[in-house]
Amino acid sequence: xxxxxxxxxxxxxxxxxxxxVPYEATASFAKGTLDGPxxxxxxxxxxxxxxxxxxxxxxxxxxxxTIPFFPAPVSGPQDCYRQLLAALQKRLDPGSxxxxxxxxxxxxxxxxxxxxRRHYPELVVLQLDAHADLRQEFQGSRYSHACVMxxxxxxxxxxxxxxxxxxxxxxxxxxxxxxGTGLLTLFAWETGSPVEAAARxxxxxxxxxxxxxxxxxxxxxxxxxxxxxxxxxxxxxTWLNNFWSGLFSGVRLLGMDFCETSPLPGCGVVSESVAVKxxxxxxxxxxxxHRLESWI
Length: 296
Description:
single chain; Arginase, Chain A; two-stranded antiparallel sheet
């Protein structure tokens, strides 16, 4: 029944390819991200596309085509990454196609990141996350969800992290060592105002193209309880909305993913509804900036 994101009748503006990837193999705490893509598609049918705060309708600026659900292999996360990347290279053009990937655990983000980075070697990844995901290996795998950004940096992507508040000693050492060399980390307690944080990230991006990787647990668990490894002290929905408004001036966004939503029947549909609202706000804010700048 729920086969397309937002289920719009119109076909206006930017085409966004939506790829549901129900992959959950390395999740190390609570399970449930396997059901994330389905829950996000379902929730999207119930969310208004009109945004009173921005005075605009996402349906006027974008339309969505959903790619069939990815049939995740059981051969392990490294093989899953390879199959995801091969499928993207076969189906889409990184030079022109905008991809929204719905997870699933965060390890799957490596494939779309590398898909764009191979076409844009100067790619910057903006990681919204409670966890640094910079371990060299975790539980025997270098392709675990806890290693995804280490692999992205290893492949050549620059990385800006926002909202980090949980990391191991190894990751702390990596951040201390690599800050200023293709890595910007804004811990949750030092983000400051959204305007200040956006300015720092925008300065880091400079003229380079951007990919956004959004882990649901960057949000405070009071509004995002449905995630595998919730961490207190997360970002608020209002903070993030103001952050996007300050970020997109002069920035080219290539694609994004939203990962780690785990539906919780006992909590209603709070988590998946918040996730869809976050996705829609990012897309609408960016497309409004992009349209305004094209007129100037």
